[in-house]
Amino acid sequence: MMSAIYDVPAPAKLNLFLHVVGRRADGYHLLQSLFVLIDWCDTLHFERRSDGRLQRHDLGPGLPADDLCLRAARALQCASGGTFGADLSVLKRVPLGAGLGGGSSNAASTLLALNRLWGLNWSRERLQQIALTLGADVPFFVGGHNALVEGIGERLTPVPRLATQRYAVVKPAASIATAAIFGSSLLVRNTETVIVMSLLADAKLRNDLLTGYGRNDLQPPAEAACREVIQVAAWLEGRFGNSRMSGSGSAVFARLGTPVGVERVDRIQGTAGQPLATNLLEEIPSDWVGRVCNSLDHHPLVGWAD
Description:
Blueprint: E1 4-23, E2 29-49, E3 54-58, H1 68-80, E4 85-91, H2 102-117, H3 124-134, H4 138-143, E5 147-151, E6 155-158, E7 166-171, H5 178-182, H6 196-201, H7 203-210, H8 219-225, H9 227-240, E8 244-245, E9 252-255, H10 262-269, H11 276-283, E10 289-294
Parallel strand pairs: 3-4
Antiparallel strand pairs: 1-2, 2-4, 2-5, 5-6, 7-9, 7-10, 8-9
């Protein structure tokens, strides 16, 4: 049995659209969204312990004391009745409070890694049952593929072979509490439900998924709560001709395939051939965090569970 697993990636995601289509009697909102993985990743390391203890070590920005990594490890340990523990080391790169799913991705990578490290060899379906108890986004990251996500996050329809896209992703200094957005009187909760199979079967609609289909129903209440979301959206819109908030914010992204004018693209990319990522980071205000990301065809750990 292996004693450690190092350099485990935990990629972020974008919600290319996010519709709130209803609300359950227990208060949970029903969603339809297209989740796409991107190459902005945290890195985790795992070392097996024989004393059953679970300890987290922060290699970058400090995380909450009982974060989703520890909760995921504890849930798997409890469900399996195992006696092993682990030292979990987390190098955090994906910003917190951004709507990019960083914490949920960390939890999913923890489940997948400890499933191996502890020799459990549980199926993906079994891991997803635990994932759903941890948060609405966690099952998606365990699932391993870009997907249309429905319900409260438990219904996944994989969307394979999506064309690779490049996105400018920018988060302002402010973060937004998800609960406040879902509790807002400005939130539309009755967007018309999309028939998923029709969406995937129609070539034009499938292409539209990548180029501006739908909207993010959480964006208006987020903008009302955090003016910086408006500022970032306008900043990206002015440079690339499009912008949309991801998840419950506060990060906003823009597709780089529809820029505003060739001159503007040349200036952003740099006349000396400088990479777009470098110039984007040079242009944004000092208290914003930004990166140019590529979409991923699948999760880097897709083969770690059946």
